[in-house]
Amino acid sequence: MLFRGRKVGVIQNLSTVASATIYKPESENSNTENPNPLFEVVESRETLDTFAKNYKFKINPDLHDHQRYQLLQILYLNRNSFARDLSEMGTYPDY
């Protein structure tokens, strides 16, 4: 969806363009198992499912399994940022 007044690109002088590639839209049959092979899910699915259950995350059920576990992996790697109750919240010294 495009919105009026939102920048979607910048016109450059041809002397500044280093390379160009042809746009190919993704087909529905493209790698649906793991479309981003650079991001690997390291933790086991059981660990991530337990983590999601303990922290009571509500994750969109329409996500593919690989998307769900990629999201859970990111949340798990940053689990120190979340608290289940006040006892888990950190404080700043001298504040």
**H-E string:** HH
Given the structure, what is the number of helices? 2
Strand content: under 5%
How would you name the oligomeric state of the polypeptide chains in this document?
single chain
The end-to-end distance, rounded to whole angstroms, is 45 Å
Largest sheet: none
Q: Which structural category fits the helices and strands?
A: mainly alpha
Query: Which value, in Å, is the CA radius of gyration?
Result: 21 Å
| Low-pLDDT windows of residues | none
Query: Helical proportion?
Result: 25-40%
Principal-axis shape: extended
| Strand runs, count | 0
Structural overview:
- It is a single chain.
- By secondary structure, the protein is mainly alpha-helical.
- It has a domain at 33-82.
- It is 25% helix and 0% strand.
- It contains two helices and no strands.
- It has helices at residues 45-55, 65-77.
- Helix 1 packs across helix 2 (65-77).
- The protein is extended, with a radius of gyration of 21 Å.
- The N and C termini lie far apart (45 Å).
- The model has no long low-confidence stretch (mean pLDDT 82).
Please give a quick description of this structure.
The chain is an all-alpha fold.
Describe the secondary-structure layout.
Elements: H1 45-55, H2 65-77
Helix pairs in contact: 1-2
